[in-house]
Amino acid sequence: GAGVSQSPRYKVAKRGQDVALRCDPISGHVSLFWYQQALGQGPEFLTYFQNEAQLDKSGLPSDRFFAERPEGSVSTLKIQRTQQEDSAVYLCASSSPGQGSYEQYFGPGTRLTVT
Amino acid sequence: AQSVTQLGSHVSVSEGALVLLRCNYSSSVPPYLFWYVQYPNQGLQLLLKYTSAATLVKGINGFEAEFKKSETSFHLTKPSAHMSDAAEYFCAVSDYNQGGKLIFGQGTELSVKP
Q1: Mind listing the pLDDT tens digit of every residue in chain A (115 residues)?
Q2: What is the distance between the terminal CA atoms of chain A, rounded to a whole angstrom?
Q3: 3-state DSSP helix/strand/coil % of chain B, to nearest 5
Q4: What does each C-alpha distance from B101 to A12, A35, B34, B92 come to in angstroms?
Q5: What is the largest CA-CA distance in chain B?
């Protein structure tokens, strides 16, 4: 496809369950970002990959959050032992810094509801 | 550290009226600035960007923004609002010294009255 895709679009998890959220970036984009958007708020940075290397994970809120991008393309954000405060929309974005503008292209997001 | 402040969490205009959404930034380096729009249950779509070229930037759907360094502002405008402009708008600054992660404002919800 031409854009960033994310799956699932909606996920309901019971408190304590583990979840895995997938992101397929635009083909050829070396940079991949994850953001968390709480209801009524702006997106907040979680983590950043350049190819397969995770260069910045300063935004991950706890050690329950883990992200990987093993082959430098698809990325997975995993949340272990989900808590109610994890309920949010998780956005993935990709970019090609070689273009010089750091413009990011966003996927539709995964809405996670923890009950 | 970089930051963005959007003044007004909600703006309401009449169809055909001027749209003005305010954004002020803080940055220790020359900023890259962006405006994104988000429709319900969708991701963010880029409206326009400033990357140190022309200070008046034109984007999609008739929107434009002017970078004013002296005022540390990057306000978004559109001369005539359309019903389809109703959405959430986010201003963001790029931390390009750290890979280009975006720091977003809190967002402004635009309502357009018929």
Answers
A1: 579 999 999 999 999 999 999 999 999 899 999 999 999 899 999 999 999 999 999 999 999 999 999 999 999 999 999 999 999 999 999 998 665 667 899 999 999 999 9
A2: 33
A3: 10, 55, 30
A4: 28, 9, 12, 10
A5: 44
Closest in B94, B104, B105 to A102, CB measured: B94
**Residue B17 pLDDT class (50, 70, 90 cuts):** very high
Closest CA to B106 of B91, B85, B87: B91
Which residues partner with A89 through β-bridges?
A: A37, A111
B99–A4: do the CB atoms touch at under 8 Å?
no
Residue in this structure with the two tokens 């992660």, named with its chain if needed:
B101
Distance from C-alpha of B3 to C-alpha of B13, rounded to nearest angstrom: 27
Phi, psi of B82 (to 5 degrees): -120, 155
> Residue A50 forms beta bridges with which residues?
A31, A53
CA distances from A62 to A85, A91, A113 (A): 11, 18, 18
* Closest Cβ opposite residue B106 in set A42, A105, A106: A42
Residue A38, helix vs strand vs coil: coil
